[in-house]
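If you are new to this repository, start here. Below is one unmodified record pulled from the training split, so you can see the exact layout before writing a loader.
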Amino acid sequence: MNELAGLIPAPKKARLTGGQVKLAGSGRILMAPGLFPGAETAAQILQGRLKERFGLALPVEVAGQGPVPRGSVLLSVSGDRAGFPGCPSPEEGYRVSCRGGAVALSGVGEAGLRHAVWTLLALVRKGPGGVALSSVEIEDWPSLAFRGVMEDVSRGKIPTLESLKSFASQLAEWKFNAMQLYVEHTFFCRKHPEIGRGWSPLTPRDIRELDAHCRSVGIELVPSMASFGHLDHLFDAKKYRKLCVGKPWRLINPLAESSYRFLDGQYSEYMPCFSSRWFNVNCDETYDLGTGKSEAVVKRLGKGEVYLRHILRLYDLVTKKYGKRMMMWGDIIGHYPRLIPRLPKDIIMLPWGYFNRWRPAEMRPYVRSRLAFIVCPGTSAWHSPAPWTHTADTNISSAAFSAKKTGGLGIMTTDWGDGGHQQPLGLSWNAFAGAAEQGWSGGATPQSEVDRRFSLSVFGDARGEAGRLWRVLGRANEALRYKVVYIQWWYSVNFGLMFYENDLKGEIFTHINRGGVRRLARVAASADSILRKLEERRAGPPLLRRELRYSVDMLVHLAAKLDWMMDLKEGRKGPSIRARGRALLAGLAGLRRGFLALWNARNRPHRREITLGLYDKSAKFYRKLLASV
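And here is the target side for that same chain:
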């Protein structure tokens, strides 16, 4: 097997040179003299992972004179930017070279050295002859400078600290260099302890510990806090509603000085927890601007002008008081292109879109105004029994291509949790791997190549079954051939039929036919068949297999549920109908237990009751139908 075929992302220049390098117990991890402290961190990562994965304990030492001993690894920082053409962040360039029975890892800067370490760890195998890797020569660099992920921690699910650390480490292995946690009300602020009560919010200690871990593995943890709209749960604490423009209690009043004092109070406790140079104020989807307390001023000045004035107030606060470079979503200001030139030139814009194919032309307003920007696609795994795989793939690859083509800083792939964040994190794994690959290549990697690398890297699956499983899961969202896949861009049709529309006369259900249900059943059966092969071989991380099993079982259940409901709608009764209903009820209980176990495996316990309540409502619906037959 060619070990290079399993690297994510794929190196730009790589070749096997024949033979192997055995990392012997008598070997060393050697640091070239004069390296800075960051190089020690890279050495510690290598040392720790070799011990953890292979039981190989190599001491870390400063290199002496003479050749590198066989079975050893030499770490160095060259500072030499030559040989990395068109690299937007030359410090991330790196080389891996195997010669004389030893390995040399070299980075242009600290980041490049870490990339070299992660690449080496991905190549190492343990076999009958010990821990070794095929002799290789690699020269590699990214096509985009910023390669990040945003994970939602505000819609129900808040991961444990250990889960967040593990996630950051995986992102680093895939050579991401930034991560954001989307925060609305889920940070504990001593000035405002009522906010986030009952949500198990992240504490300053949590953030500082996570920030330190992220720095150690090469991830910049960027602070992100909703600062205009999307503050529904913040205003659950009624004492703060005086800061809102009015019902439905989600938009802070941009006309009141008290709003800025409040935000400053939040920022004063939140921002010092991060070592990042950036801060994302968000400010997207401010649909309530122009209502309530803001109505009169918006009528006089215009919605765009009022929005811009709020952004400028935040900019002064973020940059002048806290010394951060500000990021913001681009959806609202994008409706007012004449206002974009008035934005300060050091703001970083975040244009977002999740179900679209990005076009370079969409970046023109930012390019013309000389504003830096990061294109933000999505995993399309949220609020759905299965990820909408091919849509996410196109969305992510076109975002990376458009950013590269127009001089963007990079991409930030978002993973949302609308409706209680019921979906397991693992359903987004393929999209994250794809984002790592496309962000590194600038959107140049064919999706078939991404799937092959993903299957081999994550599942040790040379047959490509894992990648094919995600393809099949993606087809589930379109199997029913309903007029749209997502209802109001919020939840998938399949999720609505599974949980929200428990009604034989429901709007979606009345448009579903037998042919669509049979297609869904075939998709579910195909996914089940592929997953069983992976399960039999114990391929991939056990928790990831369990998360996939939950998704597949839900699709199987949904197809059976819809078939049963159609029979009931047609007036069928009798023992077989009742038996199928009882089996569905039992299956639903099993899915509920599976959901709870998966939630507890990665997350804090609070707010899992949102999805448990959906299961309970569906069970009540099943019992009601059973009573009628």
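Two things worth knowing about this chain: The first strand starts at residue 13 and ends at 22. Residues 300 and 339 are 17 Å apart (CA to CA).
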